[in-house]
Amino acid sequence: MPKRILQGVVVSDKMDKSVVVQVERRVMHPVYKKYIKRSQKYTAHDEKNLHKVGDNVRIMESRPLSRTKRWVVVED
Asked: What is the CATH number of the domain that holds 69?
């Protein structure tokens, strides 16, 4: 089964070898039938500390690396 890949924006790079990535998705409202934005933050592993706040990155599912990290930044 392929691992999920999400795209988002780095909102925090204060940790060592980790970044917080905010991923936005559009969801249709069940009653009003309008699209609304929903966002979620993921903590991702960044081995070389390459990414800074504001960067667009892709993250891929991985095994648990710590209590909160289950994603890895994909190098393109």
From this structure: 2.40.50.140
